[in-house]
Design brief:
This protein has about 150 residues and is of the alpha+beta class. It has 3 helices and 9 strands; from the N terminus they run ββββββαβββαα. β1 and β2 form a beta hairpin.
Length: about 150
């Protein structure tokens, strides 16, 4: 995907690791690190604890506990943030085949946006700011090689 305001890099290798980042979108409002998953079931945020016990957020897709996936996205966000410095970086998990409700559905957990492809595309295009997309694209593309 490339428009005047959004550029996207796909499947980038994390240096010194076998891991990769599925997608990196650069918008005028900042950089998005996107982990795409093809899971069945409805994504939901389950909150446990609170007043007397520590608050614990769990990401569930159907019956599957996907909380560890959020940790992975946060690590990827840190890699990109260390690389580009003073530009906002947002993590996102995009569930492709999930059972999203007709109204609402998107949410965030620990700063990571959880949404579906069309909602993500809309969020990216709506980003405004003064990030120079071309220069950040070049920086990320040269530092994070294609996997």
């Amino acid at each position: 995907m490339k428009s005047d305001s959004v550029a996207v890099l796909h499947d980038r290798r994390i240096p010194g690791s076998k891991a990769n980042i599925d997608h990196i979108a650069i918008t005028p409002g900042g950089v998005w690190v996107i982990d795409a998953k093809r899971y069945k079931g409805r994504p939901e945020l389950k909150i446990e604890g609170g007043i007397l016990r520590p608050r614990l957020e769990k990401l569930l897709v159907g019956r599957r506990d996907c909380t560890k996936l959020v940790d992975g996205v946060l690590k990827q966000v840190d890699v990109v943030r260390d690389l580009i410095g003073d530009v906002p970086v947002t993590g996102a998990m995009c569930f492709i085949d999930a059972d999203w409700p007709l109204i609402g559905g998107a949410f965030s957990t620990r700063g990571v946006q959880v949404l579906w492809p069309k909602r993500l595309a809309k969020a990216l295009v709506e980003q405004s700011g003064n990030v120079h997309v071309a220069s950040i694209l070049e920086l990320v593309a040269t530092r994070l090689r294609s996997a």
